[in-house]
Write a structure and sequence with these properties.
This protein is of the alpha+beta class. The protein is built from three helices and eleven strands, in the order H-H-E-H-E-E-E-E-E-E-E-E-E-E. The chain is elongated.
């Protein structure tokens, strides 16, 4: 019995060792199947990196899509800094033509022409011009609305050439050239509405302080074009402070990364040209005042700094 027990114990030990060896071999086989390139652990790590590398293109696509989305969004929402900043400043220049309005009817009737010994009223045949230059400012109240004051130096004037007539004094035919020159400070305060980024409309008052106003007359020989006599009347005693109404519009253009306003502006004076104490008398002895005012149509350009 003792021998039989020892034999069974030995058989059990051999069988246990055999199963343990089988389990170890199975573990090796499992490790071999898990590794695709070699049997060491470093290779397993490399293979893990390769797996990550194989997954990276999909990740790149995702990152690329995200970048493209940002790019599209940025392009679609792009607008120059002018439209985001609350305050902007620009250089301004305006060029225009003008004339008179609200001229008294008395200047156009036969009585006035006979009384004044004139072929036409004193505001006929004038060609008006205007130049303004200075600085413009823009303070944004909201996205579509802003206040745009300006400080400009302005030149306004009128020229005309009267018909030739025979002068007994000079014993020749003469042309009469008249010139009115005005130099002033202009302060428009405009309300600007921008329904879209590129288009604007503006309106508001303009206050003008006239610094210089001269009126001169030249008598020129009709045949030789030589000036016979010049009568510089010097300072013209007209109104010195004007209030005007300004309306206009235009577009804000992006040219090579620089912003320009290009527009048209109509300026209508509400203050009459002559002072209140200027009276005229017609042939009937009736007095009337000259209520003539000026208007200007300007082409305006601004460069936003």
């Amino acid at each position: 019995m003792k021998k039989m027990f020892l034999a069974l114990a030995a058989a059990s030990l051999v069988s246990t060792m055999a199963f343990a060896q089988d389990d170890y071999d199975y573990g090796d086989d499992y490790g071999t199947e898990a590794s695709t390139s070699s049997d060491d652990g470093y290779t397993d790590m490399d293979s893990g990196d390769k797996a990550t590398a194989e997954e990276k293109p999909a990740s790149d696509v995702e990152y690329k899509n995200m970048d493209e989305g940002k790019k599209v969004s940025r392009d679609e929402g792009t607008k120059p800094a002018f439209f985001d900043r609350p305050f902007n400043m620009a250089a301004h220049i305006g060029l225009g033509l003008g004339s008179f309005w609200n001229v008294p009817d008395q200047f156009d009737n036969e009585q006035w022409r006979e009384f004044a010994n004139a072929d036409s009223n004193p505001y006929d045949e004038w060609l008006g011009y205007s130049v303004s230059f200075g600085m413009a400012f823009n303070y944004r109240i909201m996205e579509m609305l802003s206040v745009s004051p300006e400080f400009n130096l302005g030149i306004r004037g009128f020229v005309r050439n009267l018909d030739s007539y025979y002068s007994w004094w000079y014993d020749t035919y003469v042309d009469v050239n008249e010139d009115i020159f005005m130099f002033d400070i202009e302060l428009p305060i405009l309300l600007r509405v921008m329904p879209v980024h590129q288009v604007y409309f503006e309106a508001g008052p303009q206050f003008t302080l006239k610094l210089v106003a001269n009126h001169s007359i030249d008598y020129v020989d009709s045949y030789s074009d030589e000036t016979i006599y010049s009568d510089d009347k010097g300072s013209w005693d007209c109104s010195t402070f004007f209030v005007s109404l300004v309306v206009g519009g235009g577009a804000t253009l992006d040219i090579d990364g620089k912003l320009f306003d290009i527009g048209i502006r109509f300026i209508m004076d509400m203050t009459k040209l002559q002072k209140d104490d200027t009276d005229y008398v017609d042939l009937n002895g009736s007095t009337f005042k000259d209520e003539t005012k000026m208007w200007t149509l300007q082409f305006v350009v601004k460069y936003w700094i």
